[in-house]
Amino acid sequence: MESLNLPPFAHKVKELYGKPHIYDLIRRKFVALTPEEWVRQHFIHLLISHYGYPKALFAVETGLYYNKLAKRSDIMVLSTVGEPFLLVECKAPHIALNEGTLAQIGRYNFTLRPQYLAVTNGHQHYCFTASSDGIRYLDDFPVFLR
């Protein structure tokens, strides 16, 4: 897998069914190592090791509904009272982050209403808040406060 604009971490990769799989410490199992999963695992480790997010508050690839359509959120971090705090949409490194990507996470925002939203392809990362007043981009990701 290619190097990303995210800190490296001690990852575990093994071959299962003839394909590489990476260990996901949130789901506690090996999952297929796709380019998007490579970004997701890097980002999970970034949030835990650099921003202090507890593993217990993560939900990965969880379901949600938007306009009666079933969707999946890549990374959701809950607050200590169980409300959506940070929603992260991960894309493969070769996928450009553009208005379409931001629109996708914006649609999820209507359903989940997290305090913060983020999108990453492993090279570029954006974190922002969205409200009726518009979108406000942040200079960095929020540090988890207990």
Total beta strands:
9
H/E series? EEEHEEEHEEE
- Any guess at the CATH architecture? Alpha-Beta Complex
Largest sheet: 6 strands, mixed
Based on CA inertia axes, which overall geometry fits? globular
Backbone CA Rg:
15 Å
Can you describe what's shown?
With 146 residues, the chain is an alpha+beta fold. The protein has one domain (13-137): tt1808, chain A (Alpha-Beta Complex), CATH 3.90.1570.30. It contains two helices and nine strands, in the order βββαβββαβββ. The protein has a six-stranded mixed β-sheet, with helices on both faces. The longest helix has 17 residues, at 35-51. It is globular and about 50 Å long. The mean pLDDT is 86.
Please outline what is shown here:
The protein has 146 residues and is of the alpha+beta class. Helix content is 21%, strand content 38%. Strand 7 (116-120) and strand 8 (125-131) form a beta hairpin.
Helices and strands in order, then pairings?
Elements: E1 13-16, E2 19-24, E3 29-32, H1 35-51, E4 58-66, E5 69-78, E6 84-90, H2 99-112, E7 116-120, E8 125-131, E9 134-137
Parallel strand pairs: 6-7
Antiparallel strand pairs: 1-2, 2-3, 4-5, 5-6, 7-8, 8-9
Organism: Rhabdobacter roseus
InterPro entries: HSDR_N
Protein name: Type I restriction enzyme R protein N-terminal domain-containing protein
List keywords for this structure.
146 residues, alpha+beta, tt1808, chain A, six-stranded mixed sheet, three-stranded antiparallel sheet, Type I restriction enzyme R protein N-terminal domain-containing protein, HSDR_N
